[in-house]
Amino acid sequence: MYIKNISLSDFRNIQRADVELKNGINIFYGANANGKTNFLESIYICSTGRSHRTKNDKELISFNYDEAHIRVFIQNENVTQRIDAHIRRNDKKGIAVNGIPLKKSSELFGTLYTVIFSPEDLQLIKDSPSQRRRFIDIELCQLSKVYCYNLQQYMKVLKQRNNLLKEIQKNNSLKETLFVWDSQLAQYGRNIIKNRKKFVEELSYKASVRHGQITSNKEELSVLYNPSTDEDSFEEKLFSFLNRDILSGSTSIGPHRDDISFYVNGNDVKIYGSQGQQRTAAVCAKLAEIDIIKESSGVNPVLLLDDVLSQLDKTRQHMLMDCINNVQTIITCTGIEDSVKSYAGDASVFNVKNGVIKREV
Ligand SMILES: Nc1ncnc2c1ncn2[C@@H]1O[C@H](COP(=O)(O)OP(=O)(O)O)[C@@H](O)[C@H]1O
Ligand SMILES: [Mg+2]
Q1: 330 C-alpha to center of ligand 1: Å?
Q2: pLDDT by residue (tens digit) across 188-203?
Q3: Of 38, 78, 115, 260, which residue is 20 to 30 A from 32 by alpha carbon distance?
């Protein structure tokens, strides 16, 4: 799968852009704050239905304008598909595939597969558990509409349960109504736990293969799933922690408290790993993400590398670039002269300045 063309209007600082992309490496370079990440963000929105850096869609619209538009043409073997996103200041955003509007933007998952890698992702190991859950969820949502549905329903029910817990603090008789939410929460939660367990096993296997390649098999990586509760006892535990939950007005167990941990040679990298080891583990997790999409969907995802090459040493840079055979890659960097030079050979090169994207090669 690759993106053939993308056009933008009034998106962040990019007033107009119409860019033909190559099914290979595409390099966008320019000084800071000129619109490189904005450009990648627009692609990410066409993949997941939302931005990777804001929940507030209005931020995406150019200052002083009311609407932003993104149009992407994707090619997958002989089939071309068109995605249109309209982001409006006074209304909800609208997304259409081949001209047919989607009811919910989450229906978009699976149309354009992407893997995004930005400097913040190198912090994955040290980051908060919520970032690691997000990492798993975005990948699973791209691969399974059922997972995406369960996750959305789970979050909705969780919010309702938490509201009710706060109400119970004031009116204890409402306790009776809680079991309705608990059984729903457990039903969606069990499905999430089951899928995450399977996914992390796959992730651990694929990331350890990549890790072996990077470290010449000197170190062994494994990834473990730390569920807040196992699937079978979830509902029971909701009941046993009820008084505690009422006191705090929040649900203390469930997939919203899950985490994953990374081990190198049996030691937790978050605690014992050097910065280099933590970064290597994060790179391997990203590479495994590409491998899993390829295998599960049969489609090559589009790789978005946002200013990340300059953050890696030569070995990791080469490793990353060697792994991306047959994957359309969109790279942003501040200067073409540094780390990307060796890959620029047969790449398309674009300059980004003040929101204007100009093709050079
Ligand atoms: N809604 C918006 N309208 C106009 N400009 C914006 C908007 N949002 C962000 N910007 C501008 O975009 C620039 C940052 O772009 P970004 O793509 O993050 O830069 P970089 O090239 O460093 O990746 C900043 O100058 C910021 O002011
Ligand atoms: Mg940037």
Answers
A1: 18
A2: 999 999 999 999 999 9
A3: 115
